[in-house]
Amino acid sequence: MAEIIEFRSNGNNAGGYLAMPHSGTGPGVIVVQEWWGLDSGIKEMTDRLATAGFVALAPDLYHGELAGHTEMDKAAELMNSLPSERAGRDMSGAVDYLANHEATTGDGIGVMGFCMGGLLTFVLAALRPDKIKAAVPFYGFPQGDDQPDYSKIEAAIQGHMAENDDFFPPAAAMQLHNELQALGKNASITVHKGSGHAFMAPHNALGTQDPDLAAEVWPKVTAFLHDHLG
User: Fold this and answer.
1) pLDDT digits (tens, 9 = 90+) for 32-77
2) 44: domain CATH number?
3) How far is 29 from 148, CA to CA, in rounded Å?
4) 47 with 20: CB under 8 angstroms?
5) Domain span at residue 216?
6) Number of structural domains found in the chain
7) Residue 25: CA atoms inside 13 Å, Cβ hemisphere, count?
8) How far apart are the C-alpha atoms of 39 and 84, rounded to whole Å?
9) End-to-end CA gap in the chain
10) Which neighbouring-strand residues pair with 162?
11) What pairs with residue 1 in β-bridges?
């Protein structure tokens, strides 16, 4: 069962796509969108988490805006014009909504994100160490000047990056892996050989979807989330 819901975001309202597990209860996981917006691919990944036993919520960080899968310029414009403070508030509000939802079980909340959402997965883990206990970033991580304070992260991290990725270079991914390890974090970032950016994407907008790799990675991800969230 899935529905579009509203939740409070620091005095304002935000929306998202909420998918419930068949059992009716489960650990909570935030799903953070790609640069396209809250599209069919993110909804499908949210549904998959629900099927795996999680209460999954994908906040709509673009507030209704959406780029088609052939509109890379529009997607880039939406991503670059996204107010970072609003995105942080909305993700934090989504965390509180899930944490207080009657169906959510366990001691903490998980977060999973893709591309832009992978980057924001690290941001949310640093922003809400009080609640975020497991983080799964896919082919995305902070770069340049906009780095969160990684020392604040309390979550276990299982990252999945692409080898052939001009957006998020594998060498930079491994540098971040080493930095997190040096900070004593429970973090592992894997660069999957032969993979391209967006290898998990159900819509295959970039032509880089890898169904075999996705089938291999997904059970590891859901097991990791259950191990750390319940």
Assistant:
1) 999 999 999 999 999 999 999 999 999 999 999 999 999 999 999 9
2) 3.40.50.1820
3) 21
4) no
5) 2-229
6) 1
7) 8
8) 20
9) 21
10) 192
11) none
